[in-house]
Each structure stands twice: as structure tokens, then as C-alpha cells.
Amino acid sequence: MHSSLLRRFGGYLQTQWISPRRIRFWLLTLVIVYSLLGFFGLPWTIQYLAVTAAQEDFGRELRIESIQANPYTLTLGIDGLVLDDIDNRQLLGWSRLFINLEWSSIINRAWTFETIRFDKPIIQEERFASGETRFSRLATLPPDKVPAKGEPAQLPAVQINCLRCRSTACGADQRSAHRGRCSALC
Known about the structure:
eight-stranded mixed sheet; about 35% helix; alpha/beta; elongated; 8 strands
């Protein structure tokens, strides 16, 4: 009796759900693929692209502890991000970044964020004797990376409903022949 019930249930699954001829099969496959790519593929891809871009485009080391994504609630969490300058001093970073994108972005034709929250962001700026700063060095592109002149690209529309920074640490330092004083920005 027990085995015949399992056989009937197995037959039902094969004919009704696991048959590629049924639309249910393709919907179930789509949900499974979307879930796997969203929960596992997206965090890995973001980390790989961010670290690679920081190294190739800016010549800086970027470290990320972990990334979590939820494709159903459209949330993204990035923990322990640190971007080092060329002299291995921390340029910027944060303990945690939480982003909550809204589904209404599809209808609004704008990137609509319910929340963007930085926990313990750190920004370190320094002016050197040559007059350049850490961020101006970051913004300077090598000659082979300078974009071709032409029409500037349009920026996408962005709406942020709630932007929070918790326990912010900013610092500035000026090193010159006159030995300027060190002052905090925040």
C-alpha cells in the first residue's frame, strides 16, 4: 500500500511537474535558476568585478569580507569593504553597506532605493607636498584608460528615500613643506 502510494505520487510528479512539456516545469525551473543566481551567483560576481575593477582601473587593492544578496526583496549587504591607496594606507571603507532597491524601479524607470545605509564608513583624505591628494590620485586615469571624446553618457535617474550613515569617521591630513596642521572633516 505504501509503495503504491509513492509510485502514484512519483507518476503524478513526472507527468504534471517534471515534464518539460508543461509550463509548470519551466516556471519552476525559472524560479530555481533565479534563486540560485540571486543568492549565490550575484554576490560572487559583484565581489569579483569590484576587486578586478579596482585593481585594473585604479591600481588599488580592494578587500571585501562578504556580500549577501536577496533576489526576492532586492536587498544587498556588503560587509567589511576596504580600499587601500597605492602606499597601502586605507583610503575608504565601511563596516557594512545595506542597500534596499524597490521593485517600483521597473515602473518608475529610475533606480529607486528605499534605504541605503552605511555603518562605520571611513574616508581618509591627505594632501601631499606636490599638491595632489589621495582622491585626486585615485581620479587620475592612466593615458591608456582615458575615454574617447564625444557625447557624454546620460546619467540614470536615481531616487533615494532614506540615506543613513552611522558612526562616520572622516579625516584629513596636509603634508607640505610648511607642515600644515592635521584637521578632521567630520
